[in-house]
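4.2 Preliminary Data

To establish feasibility before requesting continued support, the project team ran the inverse folding procedure on a target of 79 residues. The structure was first converted into the token representation described in Section 3, and no sequence information of any kind was made available to the design step. The complete token record follows.
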């Protein structure tokens, strides 16, 4: 499924540079924009959930944690 992406608030000079680059590659500005995104994100590997969870645990290791049953009880009591 093809989606759309609209980018607002771009600097005029950036738009001009995109158009010049597109012309050099024989593409429309939109096609050049797609290619830039494809190149920038194509080599980026997807991080697994397990890796992200491990990183989050490391970041929050020394922070106090509230057990989920306490949070659930508090949520029920607020109703």
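Position-by-position output of the design step:
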């Amino acid at each position: 499924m093809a989606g759309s992406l609209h980018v607002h608030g771009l600097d005029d000079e950036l738009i001009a540079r995109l158009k010049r680059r597109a012309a050099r590659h024989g593409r429309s500005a939109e096609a050049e924009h797609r290619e830039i995104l494809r190149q920038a994100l194509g080599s980026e590997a997807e991080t697994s959930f397990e890796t992200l969870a491990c990183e989050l645990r490391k970041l929050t290791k020394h922070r106090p944690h509230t057990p989920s049953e306490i949070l659930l009880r508090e949520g029920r009591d607020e109703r």
